[in-house]
Amino acid sequence: MKTKWLPILVVLVTIFSFSSCLKSDDDIEYSSNDIISYFALPDILGKQYYFTIDQINGEIYNRDSLPYKSDTIIDKILIKQISSGGIIEYDNSYFEYLVDSVDLRKPLELTVHAPDGKNSKKYEVKVNVHQQEPDSLTWKFLGNKFPDAFSNSHQTIILNDQLLAYSPEGKVATSKLSDGANWTLEKTTAPDNLNINTLIASQNTLYGVTTEGEVFESTDGLQFNKNEIMSQQFVVTLIHSYKNKIFGIVKENETTYFATITLNGDENWSIFEEVPTNFPIENISAINYTTRTGTDRIIMVGKPESPSTTTTPWFTTNGKNWFDMTSETTSLACPYMDHPTLIHYDNKFYIFGGEFKSIYTSKEAITWRETKEKFLLNASFLHRTNYSLVVDDNNYIWTTWGNEKEIWRGRLNKLGFKNYNH
Questions:
Q1: For residue 12, is pLDDT > 80?
Q2: pTM of the predicted protein model
């Protein structure tokens, strides 16, 4: 309840009347300070939220928004502290903020009157509150205009701010990242025997391997040319690209080896260790990330040996040798998935796939747990199979569904917040 005092003008007049009665030969100079220098609320759910004071525009606000649904806390709240050199007015009355509770779900208009009775400054206090649960994954349906050409199987990639979808039959469709709902079938010179599961994008160029072990490249995803240097070896698959290097598998005399090649160079593949028999070479999904100690790693998953085996990630730091990240506890391993997709997202690892019953998550990519709340699949994804999933630079998770001809886009809510820091 707001304390009803005399109007501010009366308070100031009283001050000046009192000062005029003082017996002094010297004039008293009153401060012209009419600014608020500090503003604070009590801790909200055990945390202090700091407020920025924009003196030029007269705005007071919190950059770090209050938790979702905390508007039920600030609908009637006492301000903890306001530091000011003058008298604060609220709703034409003296504002005794330690006593008068306010509703901060809406902007609070304050006026500071300087002691000199001449200067005053208006402020608007705005308390920002998250309008979404920050840690929830929100999915948006973008339509069912994904072309019929991808009803068998497909691979979707991102290249030069475009989504491109490829079918085993040589069909290509594109959509702008700014759209995603509308797709156009394009003409392409991609070879008929291109293995779409080997496609990777690096340095604004798309690379893919044919069933004959040759590497083709494209700068627009439509017009392809053979890369003669990369095709000097029989290439089984491409695993990932990082910086100026591509990681892959090559074959010599019916034996497969890990290999790397430097882009834009004249050297052939550098060949290293023999590929273990349990290393997945189909339906590969790989990411790169930097560990807390500053080490760059490439982590990949792929189709396991059999339905009785788990989906096990492998990692490398240099491409010379790869190490499996098997969990010592079987119950903490990621279950079998025919077509897994691995992403590193909000400092955690996630694997999508299987029958889309669940998403599996891990902090270190060794022990995996099913997500139980917030970071969940849309219910309509259950038992779907013909899919492809990619993540763009704005943290949107794009999922295209060939059989259903649907396009969906998801994002963890807090990754869309303006002032969110990873």
A1: no
A2: 0.81
